[in-house]
Design a protein that fits this description.
With about 130 residues, this protein is of the alpha/beta class. The chain has a single domain, classed as 2,3-Dihydroxybiphenyl 1,2-Dioxygenase, domain 1 (Roll), CATH 3.10.180.10. Helix content is about 20%, strand content about 40%. The chain has 2 helices and 8 strands. The strands form 2 sheets. A 4-stranded mixed β-sheet has the order 1-4-3-2, with helices on one face. Strands 5-8-7-6 form a 4-stranded mixed β-sheet, with helices on one face. The radius of gyration is 14 Å and the shape is globular. The two termini are about 15 Å apart.
Length: about 130
């Protein structure tokens, strides 16, 4: 259903440092880079960090977040720690949470640009 997701960033160099480090903790790599755009995924591009096309400042969506799958609680913890070490902030410490389908182990963070991210085990995708 979804081909890819993207977030706006105001500083590609900072975004590269942040996302390269954070995504490494869950097996996601930078697959491509162009002027004003970073592309990440496992086998194919699924996530973009990019400068806004209109040249205005990027902004995060209120109530919007992007969730990434982790295989183990340790991956969740490492993603969370890497976020904090690379200019991100806590939006919900790692721990068990009741979801509609099952209990998950999750953490919520914000990247240096205010975009809210989640990393979790046992999510809807399995």
């Amino acid at each position: 259903m979804i081909d890819h997701l993207s977030v706006g960033v105001d500083d590609i160099k900072l975004a590269k440092k942040f996302y390269d480090s954070v995504f490494e903790t869950i097996g996601i790599s930078r697959l491509a880079e162009m002027d004003g755009l970073l592309a990440y995924g496992i086998k194919t591009i699924q996530f973009l960090a990019m400068s806004p096309h209109d040249g205005n400042a990027s902004s995060s969506g209120n109530g919007t977040h992007i969730a990434f799958s982790a295989k183990t609680p340790d991956e969740v913890d490492r993603f969370y720690a890497s976020t904090l070490s690379n200019g991100g902030t806590c939006a919900g410490e790692p721990g068990p949470r009741a979801y509609p389908h099952a209990e998950v182990y999750a953490a919520y963070v914000r990247d240096p640009f205010g975009n809210k991210l989640e990393v979790l085990t046992n999510g809807f995708a399995g």
